[in-house]
Amino acid sequence: MKAGIVGLPNVGKSTLFNCLSNAKAQSANFPFCTIEPNIGVVNVPDPRIEKLEELVNPERVQMATVDIVDIAGLVKGASKGEGLGNQFLGNIRECNAIIHVLRCFDNDNIVHVDGNVNPIRDKETIDIELQLKDLETVEKRLEKVKRAAKTGNKEAQLEEGLLNRIRETLLQAKSARTVIPKGYEEEELMESFQLITSKPVLYVCNVDEISAVSGNKYVDQVRELVKDEDAEVIILSVGAEADITELESYEERQVFLEDMGLSEPGASVLIRAAYKLLKQQTYFTAGVKEVRAWTINIGATAPQAAGVIHTDFEKGFIRAEVIGYEDFVQYGSEVKCKEAGKFKVEGKEYIVKDGDVMHFRFNV
Known about the structure:
There is one protein chain. It contains 14 helices and 12 strands. It is α/β, with parallel strands linked by helices. The strands form 3 sheets. A 6-stranded mixed sheet has the order 2-4-1-5-6-7, sandwiched between helices. It has a 3-stranded mixed sheet with strand order 3-9-8, sandwiched between helices. Strand 6, helix 7 and strand 7 form a beta-alpha-beta unit. It is flat. It starts with a strand and ends with a strand.
């Protein structure tokens, strides 16, 4: 599962990517500096794993991760191939969620591709290009499905109806994610279309250091604009975050954050939000060899969770031994949880909860 960082050129995408991944994507003050998409595997900050480490004292610790993709800046006309349009749109199609970076700071030394700072216009530029590309996809698909629908094919008629609703929405300059599928069949169809504007999105307002805590007039404009989108807005001073990553010690970083009025780096907040946006959650395995966070889809069953460790675990699944995270912390060990009656044995139908500490029994 991948989240792609998108935005106009020079809004801070590559600098943000560097902060998130500690990779050093090229960052320069001109458009199209990022050409090939950079992919960073980023640890998901989670205080729960630190607590488990403290209790179990394992040989090693493995955190959950999320893939972040830095994609080339998009410009007006991208849907028709302008700039690196086709490449950009291909790269974003391969991602599962969108982190949309908007420039919300004034700085005469950093060129804006459209001449001045206006996050509302910038957002609309990106939205329109993505919507135009989706409209092209929808209209091509409609041409094919109409013929089958005329013959009375029920599946084709269902698809035609959904495509027409999406087309009308896109023509109103709204994204496909605002179309609510009617039932499971439409949900599956919607997913099969792989439309760019149906992907979940969160907005990152890149602000100056002074605005890192409470935002500024540009952030207020963005919040007002997206209030009906059911999308999270995160305030981040990407320049300050870059400075934080350069500091060597934890103590130095904490002093820097305190001076800014922050309790943790904004990058940590963003990573957790991206993880949530991808509909991911975490369960843990906790033993003396290793404490590890495993990533699963929200709603995964116990066998599916076991399969993340190894496919044999899912094939030969017998049962899952489960302790809730809060119970594990309260009683301090697996043995004490058993004594307190907090150790559960679950079967194939069990839906894993975020934070479960699990052990699997299987036979292949």
